[in-house]
Amino acid sequence: MPATTRHETLKFDDLVINLTRREVTMNNEPIQIKPKEYELLLFLAEHRGQMLSREFVLERVWGWDFVGDSRTVDVHVRWLRQKIEKDAANPVRIVTVRGGGYRFEG
Predict the structure, then answer these.
(1) Has residue 3 been placed in a domain?
(2) Which of 14, 17, 34, 44 has the CB geometry, 3.0–4.6 Å to 104, for a possible disulfide?
C-alpha cells in the first residue's frame, strides 16, 4: 500500500493555502502566485484578525535588510487582492485598516 502524504493547509472558505506544497487554490483551482505574494499571504493568514502595520509586515516578510519603503507592501497586497478577492475594489479577505495597515479576515 503506498504511503499517503499529509498536506498541511490553511483553509478560508474557498481559499486554501497548502503549506507543504507552497500552493494556493481558490475554488479548487490553482492560483498563479509569486513567491513573495505567497509569503505575504501566509504571514497575513497566520495573523488572521490582527491589524498589522505596513512596517511590521515589511520587517517580517521582506526582512530587516530590505531597502525600500512600506509602499512595497501596498503593491503586493493589491496584487494579492486581484487574485483572491471576488471584487478587488471592495476587498473582504484583506481589508485596509485606515491609518494602520492591513487585517486578514479570511
Answers:
(1) no
(2) 44
**Are the beta carbons of 41 and 25 closer than 8 angstroms?**
no
- 49-83, pLDDT tens digit by residue? 999 999 999 999 998 777 777 789 999 999 999 99
Cell 500552493 found at = 23
pTM: 0.89
Write out the three cell numbers for 92. 473582504
Residue pointed to by grid coordinates 490582527 = 50
Asked if residue 57 lies in contact with residue 101, where contact means CB atoms within 8 angstroms, the answer is yes
Q: How far apart are CA 64 and CA 87, in angstroms?
A: 33
Cell of 49: 484578525
